[in-house]
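dumping these here so i dont lose them again. two proteins, back to back, each one seq then structure tokens. dont judge the mess
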Amino acid sequence: MIQGTDPLGGFAYHLDFSLPFIAVAIHSGDHVRKELQPLMALDSDQQRFEEDTGTDLMIKGLGNAVWALESRAVYDLNRSREMALPLTPEKFWGTRVYKTLPDPEMNKKSLKNYESFYGFMESCIARLLKRFGICIVYDIHSYNISRQKAKGIKSVPVFNLGTALLDQSKWKNDIELWLEQLGAISLPKIKTSVAQNLVFLGKAEFCRRICSLDDRILVLPTEVSKVYMDEIKGNVYPDVLNAVKNGLQNAILSHVRSKKIWGPF
């Protein structure tokens, strides 16, 4: 078992390598380095709105989990290296992140942290592939309901699975089973609904980059709507978040242990 925080401070992890999966929350972080804080134009409410608050808590406690500590306002792990730094409003949903742009050394440090995360993920996945011959990555995100309704989606799902980059013929049964597992999650006073490729397609960098490593890797980009919090004020509803956490963790363990997919462990 290994656990701790990356020496550069970008992410934390807990891995026992006992099952062929890793749960990841790449947008859970909210930390902004001290050297960058005086440069920021983004206020705390705007920053929190764009972060996937609570997704780290959804996966902590699982045997294999990795979660981001730094905010996506510093660098976005779900974008290519060339697009990862939000130095213009176009790279941060039209919102200005910096009143004064970071200097080249600051940007270099951010990108070093970006690559440290991917290097770590690749080494962990390689270890699981060597042991089991297969690896499934549960890529957990959350999304703002108000933004999707503004786009014209009247009824947004509690869970959305993006499968645009996946080999649909190869992973058909695995995808269908994961959708079933998500649909079985029970939340207090909230009717669980599940969609595939409705609000997000799963075409971002993390899925693309990890899937490209080896055809024995399945990434499941899973979005949770922010039913567990007030997305504007930033307040979390503990009972709902706890139910999401328990439901997701049970779903992950049930899915990865299913005889339909892996066989017995």
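---- next one ----
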Amino acid sequence: MTTLTTDTLVIDIPGRGDGYGLDLSLAPGQVWGILGPNGAGKSTLMHTLAGLRAPRSGRIRLDGQALWALSRRQVAQQLGLLFQDHHDGFPATVLETALIGRHPFLSPWQSETADDLLRARAALASLGLEALEPRLVSTLSGGERQRVALATLLTQDPAIWLVDEPTNHLDLHHQVEVMALLAERARRGRTVVMCLHDLNLAARWCDHLLLLYPNGDACWGEAGQMLVPEALERLYGQALQTLDMDGVPVFMPKA
């Protein structure tokens, strides 16, 4: 049961003072949503949790071990990160890109196995991309590239999923498809942590929320405790109207 925990973690945002220390325990089966306005540090937190950026202070533990004491290979075998933006490092097909998810489990110079190929193709099929296997990623639309990135993470299938804006560039149907896929991963015992701009997606799909305020303040807990108008209006600097749809709150900005 792999866990990701932080001890008084302060992310490093240039030009901003020390924020509130984060004491988080991200457990298997949970779906965490990170909410906050632009510049609050959502992506910075994601990169810090993944070990790609040093915190200003505090510690991160992956399955009880200090994150910085682990090799990148060890980290990648347990933790996967979906970036907000994608850049093509070299020409690759959709299938070749999905297979990158298996690299943490291969020894140097080892080729992908038949099982790796099956995993990649199953991941692509789960996101409706099987017909695009031979296409170069550089020829795809933004939404298709986003789904390929998610298929790569699904091929990796780590214990902990860090996904930064998973619905970027996606139409309504594919937004629901992707959120359902992430929820299904949690039901299988994975930990899912996602940055979201859409408050209503967070209300619908997340069971825990972390609210990051622009001044460095933060609060977190079960979604039902966090989804209160006072906290959300302060978070976004926007008056909100709350509706109820089948027991799930829906938030609309007031004019």
